[in-house]
Design a protein that fits this description.
Length: 336
């Protein structure tokens, strides 16, 4: 292999984190390949793309051929998360083993389970009580077993609830930012006056890139840095500043979410994780910061960028809805 091939960074997943990570790695001057079932819109032509379904071990291995580092940034539909996510990770793990590549995997915090407000550190036991939490813990154990058996080197990066441009299906997603832009109250499950860590997608991408390019990260678990932790109500104050008007909160009770879950699979899937918003939920990133340095994006800057992203999306949607082609198609539909 050439030197360039030996430095190849392969990102599985072309969602918000996968795209941001690929762009960050390319900005570092590294050769980058993205692997996903479908090519993501807006993926730069300078980044190589391969189509493959990670549940197919052979296809995943071939798509990652020549990788020095493989990043696992795939996800599964939330209502089917616990069933469909583990096979995806197994395919990426197989690709890393067969290509003798370092595996950097992105995890959430579900495996810890309720902590009753205790600071979340990397050495907490994985004692989740929920369906998704147990699935997450089992996936982590699979990675650690592969590491301990000498089959692969890994680095695990954990982040809290995502937010950022393009993040919609998140607690700090469309129900907050899109509602705020049009003057509606923000929908929120839980207590908005508790401290809660939210992770900003560009920070997640930068943290994962560090884990993949610094040998000190190998075979360890790391909490990825992000903006400062404040209450959700304080975040809504920053959102209000950016949109130019107050943003109210429409609190959604767990009972109401359960009722909605009878007809809405997404709501049904959210209920079991509500505990994260019923107690302080603070991610400690000391280990990462003292080892590698750096810090997350200041919260006001991250919120401003996210609001701008939602605002630009709304403008683009509005322009598309008023375009001549759209109007012609609408008139055809009305005549059918």
């Amino acid at each position: 292999m050439s030197v360039s091939e030996n430095r190849l960074q392969v990102v599985f997943g072309s969602g918000q984190v996968g795209r941001a990570l690929a762009a960050h790695l390319a900005g570092l001057g590294l050769p980058v390949r993205v692997v996903s079932r479908h090519r993501a819109a807006g993926l730069p032509t300078t980044i190589d793309w391969r189509g493959a379904d990670a549940v197919d071990f052979e296809a995943a291995t071939e798509a990652a051929n020549g990788a020095a580092v493989i990043y696992q940034c795939l996800n599964a539909p939330y209502p089917e998360w616990a069933e469909r996510f583990p096979p995806l990770q197994r395919g990426v793990l197989a690709a890393a083993e067969r290509n003798r590549a370092l595996l950097v995997t992105l995890e959430n915090l579900y495996a810890y389970g309720p902590t009753h407000g205790v600071l979340l550190t990397e050495d907490l036991p994985l004692v989740a009580t929920t369906v998704k939490g147990r699935a997450r813990a089992a996936m982590t154990e699979e990675l650690l077993h592969a590491r301990d058996a000498g089959r692969v080197h890994i680095a695990i990066g954990r982040a809290s609830d995502f937010f950022g441009v393009g993040v919609t299906e998140s607690t700090l997603g469309e129900r907050i930012f899109a509602n705020a832009l049009v003057g509606r109250r923000a929908d929120f499950i839980g207590n908005p006056d508790l401290l809660h860590t939210y992770s900003y997608v560009p920070d997640i991408a930068e943290g994962l890139a560090t884990l993949g390019t610094d040998a000190r990260a190998i075979d360890e678990v790391w909490h990825l840095p992000g903006p400062e932790t404040v209450t959700t109500r304080q975040i809504l104050g920053l959102v209000a500043h950016e949109v130019g008007h107050p943003v109210g909160i429409r609190s959604v009770s767990k009972l109401a979410v359960r009722a909605l879950g009878l007809v809405n699979p997404m709501m049904r899937a959210l209920v079991e994780m509500a505990y994260e918003f019923e107690e302080p939920f603070v991610l400690d990133t000391t280990k990462f910061r003292t080892t590698f340095g750096g810090a997350g994006t200041p919260l006001p800057i991250a919120i401003a960028a996210t609001v701008d992203g939602y605002r630009n999306k709304a403008i683009t949607t509005a322009l598309g809805a008023s375009s001549p082609n759209h109007i012609i198609e609408q008139r055809k539909a009305e005549r059918r």
